[in-house]
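Pipeline run #58 for the internal structure catalog. This entry was flagged by the ingest filter as a single-chain record with no existing model, so it goes straight to prediction. Upstream metadata was stripped on purpose; only the residue string is passed forward. Reviewer on rotation: M.T. Logging verbosity set to normal.
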Amino acid sequence: MDGLANVDVTLEILHRIADAFARRDVDGIVNSFAEDGEFRNAKGPDHWGRSYKGKAAIRSYFEPLFASTGDVQWKHTSEFICGNRAVTEWHRTATLKTGEKQSWLGCDLYTFRRSLIVMKDTYIKVVG
């Protein structure tokens, strides 16, 4: 990230994050977040879903996800940046250990600070 210390977000940064998801690279994903970063999952008990604050909490979500859905994949279809905010649109597919197939369209609303995610808020469309 040398040279990006004073940059909030670029397409290169968004692509690096997308690549970490494509590789199911938990360290790459977690290290894309600021220490005080927050991930809001689309599903959860609250109207905003479920919130994971800090790197340890974010890791606690993604490690079991990848363990339970070995073929989970995100294909990014669009992205744009406005100031320190960005949006990515994607198609997620996965097969659960139960054999259930998932196919979701979704988007992430990001807020960045100095090239790190301070908020990743996920929204999905689920068939069914």
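catalog note: The first helix runs from residue 11 to 22.
catalog note: The chain has a mean pLDDT of 91.
status: ready for reviewer M.T.
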